[in-house]
Amino acid sequence: MPQPDLDAQLAFLAEADKLKSVDRANTLNDLSRQENSAEHSWHLTLYAMVLAGQAGPGVDIGRVIRMLILHDLVEIDVGDVPLHSAGGQAHDSPEIQQAEAEAARRIFGLLPPAQAAEFLALWQEFEANRTPDAVFAKSLDRTQPLVQNLTSDGAGWVKYGVTYDNIVSRVGEKVARGLPAVWDELHCRVRAFFGLA
Amino acid sequence: MPQPDLDAQLAFLAEADKLKSVDRANTLNDLSRQENSAEHSWHLTLYAMVLAGQAGPGVDIGRVIRMLILHDLVEIDVGDVPLHSAGGQAHDSPEIQQAEAEAARRIFGLLPPAQAAEFLALWQEFEANRTPDAVFAKSLDRTQPLVQNLTSDGAGWVKYGVTYDNIVSRVGEKVARGLPAVWDELHCRVRAFFGLA
User: Fold this and answer.
1) Nearest-CA distance B69 → chain A (Å)
2) Which residues are B23's β-sheet partners?
3) Using one digit for the tens of pLDDT, what is the confidence trace for A1-19?
4) Measured between CB atoms, does B116 come within 8 Å of chain A?
5) Rounded Cα gap, residues A30 and A39, in angstroms
6) Coil, helix or strand for B154?
7) What ipTM score was computed for the predicted complex, to two decimals?
8) Local confidence pLDDT in tens for the 197 residues of chain B
9) What are the CA-CA distances from residue A194 to residues A152, A166, B189 (Å)?
10) Contact between A108 and A120 (Cβ < 8 Å)
């Protein structure tokens, strides 16, 4: 019996495979290669499980995890725009935001309409970064590359000439917003990395 | 202020990074390289979200997703044992099961004790494959590589000399247990792949 919804879902899942070929700025901890956005997304979901106890009131970890599973799929069309590229400006530019919004419509649009709308809304909520779930998810998305850099000789930071002040202003504030106790600890480690007292 | 639980959690999350270097039998859809177990785990969580409507009664998709996030971490110590290696026998051997159980104790044991126990129990439930959540998760874990093979010229099947009958007996039964309608569709595609009417 024909199953048109299933055909659409399998086509979406095949398209999603391309996220495994999108490279990010940071490396694996052993410096063997760049991290890709699919395995980064998996690592983030594990961060969410492990650091669930740090979540503020009103955070639904299940929704956070679903946001994180979806959050980078737009990079299949747009690529990863490193946080520290172009002096930290490129990442949030209107051009990138528009390209990502178009990518979201195309990629989630492969799904049956009701599911496409549900996934698109979850991705838009993440991007808007206003609900407790989105704020926690965004904080995790800033925390994981910070930790990756700390455990891999700052490979991504060296590549983009990132300073201590860049990290505090571009990363610290967002980590602290959803994960204040984690930022306290990581801030100490960042200071030590840069040889500050 | 010292945060010993957070130190343990960050050490666990750094250890988990190693799953990105565990290669699997199947390739990416574009045949560019082997898939690794971290990105496979991410893809599986997306399968769970997309195919949630196929889940039988009593399945909690949030728990299924958490199982899938954790399910392959033992491969950091044991490696991926391909389903079709050694005539399909090696994958479920008592030696592999024991090695994986030891790996689970070591790796989850890096976490604070209560969280270690929670994650270990979830992994054990997945492995035992008896609860509705575990059955659905295991079915997804058989479905994704089947689809990867179908969309990448059967690269993993060719490598291990896998026949149509092997797929029906080693994969089909487990897919059908949790995802019967999906198996109906994939069974047709497998028959077509092998040139069967």
Assistant:
1) 6
2) B36
3) 678 899 999 999 999 999 9
4) no
5) 15
6) coil
7) 0.95
8) 678 899 999 999 999 999 999 999 899 999 999 999 999 999 999 999 999 999 999 999 999 999 999 999 999 999 998 888 776 667 778 999 999 999 999 999 999 999 999 999 999 999 999 999 999 999 999 999 999 999 988 988 988 899 999 999 999 999 999 999 999 999 999 999 999 97
9) 14, 12, 56
10) yes
| A62–chain B nearest CA distance, Å | 6
Residue corresponding to tokens 């990867």 = B148
Six token digits for residue B167: 């797929």
pLDDT at A62 over 70: yes
Contacts (Cβ under 8 Å, ≥6 apart) of A1: B184
Structure tokens of B49?
Answer: 């979200």
- Structural domain count of chain A: 1
Q: How many residues does chain A have?
A: 197
Q: Which residues pair with A34 in a beta bridge?
A: A27
Q: How far apart are CA A53 and CA A55, in angstroms?
A: 6
**Bridge partners, A23 (sequence order):** A36
**Residue tagged 């089947």 (tokens):** B146
Q: Give Cα A170 to chain centroid, integer Å.
A: 14
Q: Which two tokens stand for residue B113?
A: 């004790």
pLDDT at B197: 72
Map tokens 């679903």 to a residue: A66
Give CA separation, B50 vs A13, B138, B147, in Å.
8, 15, 14
Q: What is the DSSP letter of B32?
A: S
Q: Say yes or no for a CB contact (<8 Å) between B6 and A148.
A: no
Cβ proximity of B50 and A12 under 8 Å: yes
Tokens linked to B194 = 């092998």
Residues spanned by the domain of A68: 4-193
Residues from chain A contacting residue B147 (CB–CB below 8 Å): 10, 13-14
Query: Do residues A75 and A37 touch, judged by C-beta distance below 8 A?
Result: yes
Place of tokens 């000439």: A161
- Which residue shows structure tokens 């995890």? A65
- For A81-101, the pLDDT digits (tens) are 888 777 666 777 899 999 999
CA distance B58 to chain A (A): 17
Short-list B101, B2, B55, B107, CA closest to A46: B107
- CATH code where residue A174 lies: 1.10.3210.10
